[in-house]
Amino acid sequence: MATMPAFLRKNEAPAAPAPAPETVTRTARPRAARDPFRLRALPHDDIFFHCKRIDNSRLVREADPQARGACWSAIGAACLLLVLLTSAFAPTAMTTLAGYKLEALHSEERRLLEERRVLDLQEAELLSPARLDQLAHENNLVTPSSGQVIHLDKPEGEVAMVK
Protein backbone atom coordinates (compact mmCIF):
# COMPACT_ATOMS: atom_id res chain seq x y z
CA MET A 1 0.00 0.00 0.00
CA ALA A 2 3.02 2.27 0.25
CA THR A 3 3.08 2.77 -3.52
CA MET A 4 -0.63 3.46 -3.90
CA PRO A 5 -1.22 6.85 -5.54
CA ALA A 6 -2.04 9.66 -3.18
CA PHE A 7 -5.18 10.71 -5.03
CA LEU A 8 -6.91 7.47 -4.01
CA ARG A 9 -6.59 8.30 -0.31
CA LYS A 10 -9.57 9.76 1.49
CA ASN A 11 -7.66 11.61 4.20
CA GLU A 12 -7.84 15.02 2.57
CA ALA A 13 -10.00 17.64 4.30
CA PRO A 14 -13.32 18.21 2.59
CA ALA A 15 -13.74 21.54 0.87
CA ALA A 16 -15.64 24.25 2.75
CA PRO A 17 -19.29 24.41 1.79
CA ALA A 18 -20.15 27.16 -0.64
CA PRO A 19 -21.90 30.13 0.96
CA ALA A 20 -25.58 30.53 0.35
CA PRO A 21 -26.42 32.76 -2.61
CA GLU A 22 -28.24 35.38 -0.51
CA THR A 23 -25.18 36.01 1.69
CA VAL A 24 -22.93 36.89 -1.24
CA THR A 25 -22.88 40.58 -1.84
CA ARG A 26 -21.53 42.72 -4.56
CA THR A 27 -18.85 44.00 -2.29
CA ALA A 28 -17.21 40.60 -2.04
CA ARG A 29 -13.53 40.60 -2.68
CA PRO A 30 -12.61 41.07 -6.30
CA ARG A 31 -11.15 38.26 -8.37
CA ALA A 32 -7.42 38.24 -8.77
CA ALA A 33 -6.21 38.81 -12.30
CA ARG A 34 -4.98 35.63 -13.95
CA ASP A 35 -1.27 35.56 -14.83
CA PRO A 36 -1.09 34.79 -18.60
CA PHE A 37 2.43 33.28 -18.31
CA ARG A 38 1.69 30.83 -15.52
CA LEU A 39 1.56 27.21 -16.65
CA ARG A 40 -1.18 24.93 -15.53
CA ALA A 41 -0.31 22.01 -13.25
CA LEU A 42 0.88 18.76 -14.76
CA PRO A 43 -1.42 15.76 -14.53
CA HIS A 44 -0.81 13.63 -11.43
CA ASP A 45 1.68 16.18 -10.14
CA ASP A 46 0.41 15.62 -6.62
CA ILE A 47 1.13 11.86 -6.68
CA PHE A 48 4.12 10.66 -4.67
CA PHE A 49 5.55 7.17 -5.10
CA HIS A 50 7.66 5.89 -2.26
CA CYS A 51 10.22 3.15 -3.05
CA LYS A 52 10.76 0.94 -0.07
CA ARG A 53 14.10 -0.90 -0.08
CA ILE A 54 13.56 -4.63 0.31
CA ASP A 55 16.46 -6.85 1.34
CA ASN A 56 15.91 -10.50 0.43
CA SER A 57 19.50 -11.59 0.97
CA ARG A 58 18.63 -13.61 4.09
CA LEU A 59 15.77 -15.48 2.44
CA VAL A 60 16.28 -19.10 1.46
CA ARG A 61 14.10 -20.62 -1.20
CA GLU A 62 12.14 -23.61 -0.04
CA ALA A 63 12.76 -26.77 -2.03
CA ASP A 64 9.89 -27.91 -4.22
CA PRO A 65 9.79 -31.73 -4.46
CA GLN A 66 7.76 -31.68 -7.69
CA ALA A 67 9.98 -29.16 -9.47
CA ARG A 68 12.81 -31.67 -10.00
CA GLY A 69 10.51 -34.15 -11.74
CA ALA A 70 8.94 -31.41 -13.84
CA CYS A 71 12.39 -30.20 -14.89
CA TRP A 72 13.49 -33.67 -15.97
CA SER A 73 10.19 -34.17 -17.80
CA ALA A 74 10.74 -30.92 -19.71
CA ILE A 75 14.32 -31.93 -20.58
CA GLY A 76 13.13 -35.33 -21.80
CA ALA A 77 10.34 -33.79 -23.87
CA ALA A 78 12.79 -31.31 -25.43
CA CYS A 79 15.22 -34.13 -26.29
CA LEU A 80 12.43 -36.19 -27.82
CA LEU A 81 11.26 -33.20 -29.84
CA LEU A 82 14.83 -32.60 -31.01
CA VAL A 83 15.20 -36.23 -32.13
CA LEU A 84 11.89 -36.12 -33.99
CA LEU A 85 12.70 -32.86 -35.75
CA THR A 86 16.19 -34.08 -36.64
CA SER A 87 14.85 -37.32 -38.09
CA ALA A 88 12.19 -35.40 -40.01
CA PHE A 89 14.55 -32.86 -41.54
CA ALA A 90 17.62 -35.09 -42.02
CA PRO A 91 16.54 -36.55 -45.41
CA THR A 92 15.86 -33.08 -46.79
CA ALA A 93 19.21 -31.79 -45.58
CA MET A 94 21.05 -34.83 -46.96
CA THR A 95 19.30 -34.45 -50.32
CA THR A 96 20.35 -30.81 -50.48
CA LEU A 97 23.96 -31.68 -49.60
CA ALA A 98 23.97 -34.46 -52.20
CA GLY A 99 22.70 -31.98 -54.79
CA TYR A 100 25.54 -29.60 -53.94
CA LYS A 101 28.06 -32.44 -54.26
CA LEU A 102 26.55 -33.58 -57.56
CA GLU A 103 26.74 -30.06 -58.97
CA ALA A 104 30.38 -29.81 -57.85
CA LEU A 105 31.12 -33.11 -59.61
CA HIS A 106 29.41 -31.88 -62.80
CA SER A 107 31.50 -28.71 -62.80
CA GLU A 108 34.66 -30.77 -62.18
CA GLU A 109 33.68 -33.08 -65.07
CA ARG A 110 33.26 -30.08 -67.39
CA ARG A 111 36.64 -28.74 -66.30
CA LEU A 112 38.34 -32.12 -66.85
CA LEU A 113 36.75 -32.53 -70.29
CA GLU A 114 37.97 -29.08 -71.28
CA GLU A 115 41.44 -29.96 -69.99
CA ARG A 116 41.33 -33.23 -71.95
CA ARG A 117 40.41 -31.34 -75.14
CA VAL A 118 43.35 -29.00 -74.62
CA LEU A 119 45.72 -31.95 -74.02
CA ASP A 120 44.41 -33.79 -77.10
CA LEU A 121 45.02 -30.67 -79.18
CA GLN A 122 48.56 -30.33 -77.81
CA GLU A 123 49.23 -34.02 -78.51
CA ALA A 124 47.95 -33.66 -82.07
CA GLU A 125 50.22 -30.64 -82.58
CA LEU A 126 53.22 -32.54 -81.19
CA LEU A 127 52.54 -35.67 -83.27
CA SER A 128 51.79 -33.89 -86.52
CA PRO A 129 53.91 -35.15 -89.46
CA ALA A 130 55.26 -31.66 -90.16
CA ARG A 131 56.53 -31.29 -86.60
CA LEU A 132 58.03 -34.81 -86.62
CA ASP A 133 59.87 -34.02 -89.87
CA GLN A 134 61.17 -30.78 -88.34
CA LEU A 135 62.46 -32.65 -85.26
CA ALA A 136 64.06 -35.32 -87.45
CA HIS A 137 65.95 -32.70 -89.45
CA GLU A 138 67.06 -30.93 -86.25
CA ASN A 139 68.47 -34.20 -84.81
CA ASN A 140 69.80 -35.63 -88.11
CA LEU A 141 67.27 -38.40 -88.13
CA VAL A 142 66.40 -38.26 -91.77
CA THR A 143 65.16 -41.31 -93.61
CA PRO A 144 68.09 -43.15 -95.20
CA SER A 145 68.19 -43.46 -98.94
CA SER A 146 67.94 -46.87 -100.57
CA GLY A 147 71.72 -47.12 -101.03
CA GLN A 148 72.40 -46.53 -97.36
CA VAL A 149 70.41 -49.49 -96.08
CA ILE A 150 72.48 -52.63 -95.45
CA HIS A 151 70.68 -55.83 -94.60
CA LEU A 152 72.58 -58.22 -92.42
CA ASP A 153 71.88 -61.79 -93.22
CA LYS A 154 72.79 -64.04 -90.45
CA PRO A 155 73.08 -67.75 -91.10
CA GLU A 156 70.75 -69.86 -89.13
CA GLY A 157 72.24 -71.71 -86.26
CA GLU A 158 74.91 -69.22 -85.50
CA VAL A 159 74.69 -67.19 -82.41
CA ALA A 160 76.58 -64.14 -81.48
CA MET A 161 79.46 -64.93 -79.28
CA VAL A 162 80.66 -62.86 -76.44
CA LYS A 163 84.44 -62.44 -76.28
Oligomer: single chain
Q: What is the ordering of alpha helices and beta strands?
A: HH
Shape field: elongated
Count the E strands. Answer: 0
Range of strand content: under 5%
Number of helices: 2
Main sheet characteristics: none
Radius of gyration: 55 Å
What class, by secondary structure content?
A: mainly alpha
What report would you give on this structure?
The chain is an all-alpha fold. 44% of the residues lie in helices and 0% in strands. The chain has two helices and no strands. It has helices at residues 65-126, 129-138. The longest helix has 62 residues, at 65-126. The mean pLDDT is 82.
Set out the fold topology:
Elements: H1 65-126, H2 129-138
Brief summary of the model shown:
With 163 residues, this protein is mostly helical. The protein has helices at residues 65-126, 129-138. The longest helix is centred in the middle third of the chain and has 62 residues, at 65-126.
Which characteristics define this entry?
about 160 residues, mainly alpha, 2 helices, about 45% helix
